[in-house]
Amino acid sequence: MKKLIILIQVVMVAFLSSVSFDIKGQDQKLRIIVIGAHPDDPEKVGGTAYKWAQLGHDVLMVSLTNGDAGHQSIKAKELARIRREEARRAGEVIGVRYFTLDNHDGQLMPTYKNRLQVIRLIRGHKADIVITHRPYDYHPDHRYTGTLVLDAAYMVTVPTILPKVPHLEKNPVFLYMSDGFIHPEPFKADVCIPVDDVIEKKIDMYHQHTSQMYEWLPFNRGALDQVPASDEERRAWLGKTRKAGSSAEPYRDKLIEQYGTEKGSAIKYCESFQDSGYGTRLTRENIKRYFPFY
Questions:
Q1: CA separation for the pair 18, 25 (Å, rounded)
Q2: Predicted confidence (pLDDT) per residue in 162-210, tens digit
């Protein structure tokens, strides 16, 4: 009987030790949500998202619209179905969840109803990091996505707003993904993440968006005749055209500041983020927590 009691105690200690380890691991896990306007917008930070996912962090990609207006011939209902499936497959490429809401493409507005959608998303994911567009952009859906996220930034901590969804006790870090717009002010990189090692995965994500990458965007830009016919040729063509959007050149000084002259000068591709100034601020002290591969 005494031996049995000792055995039970040993088993319990081992069990409790493993539970403590799991809880500690959960405490260290980051929860990141990337909120874009359209299916294929969250891919702007697909390389960094993949790096987070590889380390076991929980990444969720969301499109606030269903992308149902962006095609030259496919009807809205069918296009929404196609683009939802393309987004899901893009998420599978890097092992993250990716879904679209049913707001119509080109019709997104910064309403209270839509703000509650965003609050629900951020709270539901218990986000530590929220990434979105700056509210300065050529596309109104991009601008209003940024506005909606910023309007939700404080409200995610207010219990009386959307009381059925538990509020966040700590406000997330709210970051902008990069863009090239200069009015009313240009994008300013606070942190740059090299993605040379995962750039092909990022292009693989874009490759899933057939209706966008190989149909609508080329048509809209008068370049439909440049799109190759075979899947293999298309993927190669997409790599040549899309990698430029991840070029490290605009952020060379910041990369050298962060990683030193030798490494910073050698980086070809990166993804850059700007602290929006809302929520928890990005600091020298916490940057390694939020970007463990920094």
A1: 10
A2: 999 999 999 999 999 999 999 999 999 999 999 999 999 999 999 999 9
CATH number at residue 107: 3.40.50.10320
Closest CA to 169 of 275, 46, 280: 280
Q: Are 19 and 25 in contact (CB under 8 A)?
A: no
In a domain, 1, yes or no: no
Q: Which amino acid is at 22?
A: D
In a domain, 238, yes or no: no
Amino acid at 166: P
Q: Tell me the per-residue pLDDT of 268-280, one tens digit each, with 9 for 90 and over.
A: 999 999 999 999 9
Taking a C-beta distance cutoff of 8 angstroms, is the pair 100, 88 a contact?
Answer: no
Q: 150-189 burial, b for 16+ CB within 10 Å, e for fewer?
A: bbbbebbbeeebbeebeebeebbbbbbbbbeeeeeeebeb
Residue 221 corresponds to which tokens in the numbers above? 């830009």
Burial of residue 280 (CB within 10 Å: 0-12, 13-18, 19+) is middle
CB 171 within 8 A of CB 156: yes
The CA angle 256-45-79, to the nearest 5 degrees, is: 155
- 158 located within any domain: yes
Predicted TM-score (pTM) of the model is: 0.91
